[in-house]
UniProtKB/TrEMBL annotation:
Keywords: Cell membrane, Membrane, Transmembrane, Transmembrane helix. The chain crosses the membrane at residues 52-75. InterPro entries: Transgly_assoc. The keyword Membrane applies. The keyword Oxidoreductase does not apply. Belongs to the UPF0410 family. It is a multi-pass membrane protein. It is found in: Cell membrane. This is Transglycosylase associated protein. GO terms for cellular component: plasma membrane.
């Protein structure tokens, strides 16, 4: 459980850096983006590449980047 939260935070942080939206996100947002991105990425792109804490890293990072961009776009519209 704790391993998943740590890996989720790292995935969210990487996605934030890739999309250049990471400065706006806190630690909790990184965890949520990483975990949600892992779910979305693995559903859309499969389970390929290295795994940590049950998460395929590359699809998870891509999914988290999608989540970060989508949420930033929706928040920016308000």
């Amino acid at each position: 459980m704790i391993g998943s939260l740590i890996v989720g935070a790292i995935i969210g942080m990487i996605a934030g850096k890739i999309t250049e939206k990471g400065g706006q996100m806190g630690c909790l947002a990184n965890i949520v983006a990483g975990l949600a991105g892992s779910y979305v990425g693995q559903r859309l792109f499969g389970n390929w590449g290295p795994h940590l804490a049950g998460m395929a890293l590359f699809p998870s990072i891509i999914g988290a980047a999608i989540i970060v961009v989508l949420v930033s776009y929706l928040i920016g519209k308000k």
